[in-house]
Amino acid sequence: MANFKGHALPGSFFLFFGLWWSVKYPLKYACRKHRKICWFGSKVGFQRVEVIEGIVKAIFALIGMLAEQFVPDGPHLKLYNHEEKQWDHLMNWQHSTMYLFYGISGVMDIITHTTKAVPVAMDRLMLAIAVFVEGFLFYYHVHGRQELDQHIHLLLLYAVFGGALCIFLEIFFRGNIILELFRCSLCILQGSWFWQIGFVLFPPGGGPEWNQNDHSNIMFITMCFCWHYASSLMMVAANYGIIIW
Which residues cross the membrane (predicted)? Predict the structure, then answer.
C-alpha cells in the first residue's frame, strides 16, 4: 500500500519480532549459563516457544497479504488489467510477495520444531531467504522515483541485507549470542525505519510535505537513520542487561 498504513503495518511486524527476539535470545543465553537456577530453560520449553513464534509469524504474514490485496484500492488478486492492458497494482503485489516468504518461514519454523523431517538449520535458512527476498524486491521498488523517496528506501536495504547475512551465518553458528543480538538490532531498525518512511512520504494528519529534491533533507534522513540504529542498539542492550541481571 502506497500510504502511511502500508508502511506502518510491516514496521509494526518488524518491531514486534525485533523486541521479542531481544528478550528471547538473552534469556536462552542466560539459561545455558545458569541451568540450575533458570526456570524457563528446558529444551522442550524453548521448542514450544519456537513453534508459537512460527505460528505468529505465519499469521502476521497472512494478515499482511490480505491487507495488501483487499484494501479498497488494492488489486483483489488481479495481476493484469486487461482493459487498460497493463500490470495492476504491482506495488501491492511486491509487498504481498514479501509477506509470502515470511509466511513460508513461519511454516518452516513449525515443521522444524514439531517434526524431524527437516534439518534444524532449515528454519534459519528460510528466514535468511525471506529477508533477502525483501531486500531484493525493495531494491527494484523505487526506480524512477524522486531523490528523497529513493534514498530513504535504499537506506532500509542496509538493515535488510545486513540481517539476511547475519541470519545466514546463524545456519553455521547457531546459538551465537553476538549474531542473535545483531539480528535483533537490525530487525528493530527495520521496523522503526518503516514507520519513519511513512512519516516522511505520507505525513499523517495533513502535515507539510518534505521537499523531495532538497539535499539537506537527504543529509538529515541519513543522520536520522543512524539515530534509529543507535536507539535500536540501546533497546537491545537494555533488554539484555535486565535479563542477564
Answer: 6-27, 125-142, 154-173, 185-206, 218-242
